[in-house]
Structure to design on (396 residues):
């Protein structure tokens, strides 16, 4: 087994994630393709992840790719998470991950409908859900695009309430609206369009997939073939990685992960005592990358690409992750995390280094903080999932 040490893994990260000097992407689509997909649970992450990788990029350029050219699409994907994916790759993600999620979520929603006594039994609840879905899809087709509120006006059953955690202190009775739209989206029937408001907004208009893209999401490959394609893409961007890394990233079973690695004929390498994998022909040492510094947003796909992160995270997890495993804004140098950043009410980018990196790197960090302050132009981004260090910098 060839050994791939930490230094080489960090060099690969800088080059393949389009963060190193001279390695950056040409446009938002190239940035997304380099990362397989961009995290989009927090809408700001998409734009900030692109800006970190595409010199001179602006929000308008990413919006154009998403909503005008539609060369990028926002969809549910790996780990039941919303991503922005290059449009030609969307059928792969759908077949490799989202279809299974849709099956599981339908069963769960029918169970919740039965608990709320929406119909007399589970089978009746399934029929009720199917009828509401068809009515909602028809209403959306007639409108062309619509908000959740507009669709619930067209289909009043969307205002049916669920009964969640009855008898508990955190009991809730949410409308079924978001769950039905989630289900239709997970099955590839509808897509999230333009946001309602600025690029920071998490609410979107919905459109039928067939209207948004000619032919909808396109022809899906068989699920097993799609998993192989996704595994190959992940290894291209994130390799070397372990079976556990791939399983966590994709949200697959251990068996599915092992089978996909076998199908791409992944080559075993030594990750300082752990077995990792790279694609055939990708065993050679990475070309060194010139020194670089990058500011990445919360939930950026780089730190969220592996389950095992010690080789780039070091001892900083408690300051940079929230209690549920979501990473906040980070500062990187040559393939490792060296600090975090946040924005106080005044809007400037404020940073904090977690280790001594020397005068030269500290100067690069200060320069990059100024660049981001200019890029944001007074817009204050508050991450949806806030790390302890980001809260400290934003509130201090």
């Amino acid at each position: 087994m060839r050994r791939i040490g930490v230094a080489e893994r960090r060099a690969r990260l800088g080059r393949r994630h389009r963060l190193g000097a001279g390695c950056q992407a040409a446009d938002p689509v190239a940035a997304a393709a380099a990362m397989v997909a961009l995290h989009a649970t927090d809408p700001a992450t998409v734009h900030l992840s692109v800006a970190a990788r595409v010199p001179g990029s602006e929000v308008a350029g990413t919006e154009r790719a998403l909503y005008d050219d539609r060369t990028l699409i926002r969809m549910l994907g790996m780990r039941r998470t919303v991503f922005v994916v290059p449009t030609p790759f969307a059928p792969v993600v759908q077949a490799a991950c989202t279809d299974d999620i849709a099956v599981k979520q339908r069963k769960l929603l029918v169970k919740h409908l039965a608990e709320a006594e929406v119909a007399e039994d589970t089978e009746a609840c399934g029929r009720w859900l199917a009828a509401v879905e068809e009515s909602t899809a028809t209403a959306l087709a007639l409108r062309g695009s619509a908000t959740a509120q507009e669709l619930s006006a067209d289909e009043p059953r969307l205002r049916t309430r669920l009964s969640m955690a009855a008898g508990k202190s955190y009991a809730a009775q949410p409308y079924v609206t978001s769950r039905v739209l989630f289900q239709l989206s997970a099955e590839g029937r509808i897509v999230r369009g333009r946001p309602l408001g600025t690029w920071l907004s998490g609410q979107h208009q919905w459109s039928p997939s067939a209207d948004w893209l000619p032919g909808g999401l396109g022809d899906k490959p068989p699920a097993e073939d799609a998993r192989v394609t996704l595994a190959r893409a992940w290894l291209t961007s994130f390799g070397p990685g372990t079976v556990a890394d791939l399983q966590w990233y994709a949200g697959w079973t251990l068996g599915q992960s092992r089978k996909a690695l076998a199908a791409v004929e992944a080559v075993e390498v030594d990750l300082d005592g752990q077995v990792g994998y790279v694609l055939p022909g990708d065993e050679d040492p990475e070309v060194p990358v010139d020194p670089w510094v990058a500011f990445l947003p919360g939930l950026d796909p780089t730190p969220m690409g592996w389950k095992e992160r010690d080789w780039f995270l070091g001892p900083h997890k408690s300051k940079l992750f929230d209690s549920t495993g979501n990473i906040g804004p980070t500062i990187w140098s040559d393939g490792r995390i060296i600090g975090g950043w946040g924005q106080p009410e005044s809007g400037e980018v404020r940073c904090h280094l977690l280790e001594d990196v020397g005068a030269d790197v500290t100067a690069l960090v200060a320069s990059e903080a100024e660049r981001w302050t200019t890029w944001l132009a007074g817009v204050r981004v508050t991450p949806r999932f806030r790390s302890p260090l980001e809260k400290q910098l934003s509130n201090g």
Summary: DSSP finds 16 helices and twelve strands in the chain. The longest helix spans residues 90-115. The first strand starts at residue 2 and ends at 3. The mean pLDDT is 96.
